[in-house]
Design brief:
The protein is of the alpha+beta class and about 270 residues long. About 55% of the residues lie in helices and about 20% in strands. The protein has a five-stranded antiparallel β-sheet. A hairpin with a 4-residue loop joins strand 8 and strand 9. The longest helix is centred in the N-terminal third of the chain and has 49 residues. The termini are far apart.
């Protein structure tokens, strides 16, 4: 194969001419790209500082700053290729079609995303709260965009989707700062009710972790075929709730034993066919 030197010279001359004509666009495009990347970093840091000063939720702060960061990057990329002379209308249409396809395929994830935004904005609970929802009970350890992480009493990690969590019933045990224990003690019909109630009240009054306000309640809950059920309802701070419940049951049992009161066991009638 014989290479014609004249053709090489013509190609080189044409390439050099195109490069000279195109170099202003190329230089300006890359200048916009580098300046834009630096500016986006500054804007992102500034927005983060503003949101932190306004005491926004850390999860919401990180999420909004990330969304703004990538939105500005996409805008910068479109501006960059437009400055190079590339038609952007078809490119934007392709992005729109891809966004629609991704949105349809990720409907469940988008529902969880919307639920996460609602939880972060309206704050039905916060990190550290003990909640019950979707059939699980645990302490909130992290609120993410798509899921909420709970730690239950067995130190197991539970991930609850935010979509179902935001649309369902949430019981927040930590919001008020204190809780009431609902305990039941069964005594026989031979027992002096007033004496039993006085003993329970004395146990509650001697427990410093039982709150004086609201006052604890001791009352007859139910009269069954086999026993009298007494409702014992002491109030305690959230941190003392478990201890108060167990101490109350133990203290009542010891007080009943000392007074000769027998706790009536639950009797279940079983029907037998002969």
């Amino acid at each position: 194969m014989i290479v014609n030197p004249d053709h090489i010279a013509n190609y080189a001359e044409t390439f050099l001419k195109v490069l000279i004509d195109y170099s202003p666009k190329l230089i300006s495009a890359f200048l916009i790209l580098f300046v834009g990347i630096y500016t986006i970093r500054i804007i992102n840091k500034l927005i983060r500082k503003i949101m932190v000063k306004r005491n926004l939720d850390p999860t919401l702060t990180n999420f909004l700053s990330d969304i703004l960061f990538w939105a500005l990057r996409v805008l910068l990329f479109v501006t960059f290729i437009s400055k190079l002379g590339i038609e952007t209308s078809s490119f934007v249409a392709i992005l729109g079609a891809m966004g629609l396809a991704v949105g349809l395929s990720l409907q469940g994830s988008l529902s969880n995303f919307a639920g996460g935004m609602l939880i972060i904005l309206f704050k039905p609970f916060k990190v550290g709260d003990t909640i019950e929802a979707q059939g699980v009970l645990g302490t909130v350890s992290e609120i993410q965009i798509f899921v909420t992480k709970l730690i239950n009493g067995n130190n197991q990690t539970i991930f609850v989707p935010n979509g179902a969590l935001s649309n369902g019933t949430i019981i927040n045990y930590s919001l008020q700062g204190f809780r009431r224990a609902d305990l039941t003690l069964s005594i026989s019909y031979d027992t002096d009710i007033k004496k039993a109630k006085d003993l329970i009240t004395e146990v509650l009054n001697n427990n410093p972790k039982v709150l004086k306000t609201p006052a604890a309640e001791v009352s007859v809950k139910l009269l069954t075929d086999s026993s009298i059920q007494l409702a014992v309802r002491p109030w305690a701070n959230n941190l003392d709730f478990g201890v108060v419940s167990s101490d109350t049951l133990e203290g009542c049992k010891l007080a009943f034993d000392a007074a000769g009161i027998v706790i009536q066991p639950f009797v279940k009638e079983v029907s037998r066919n002969n």
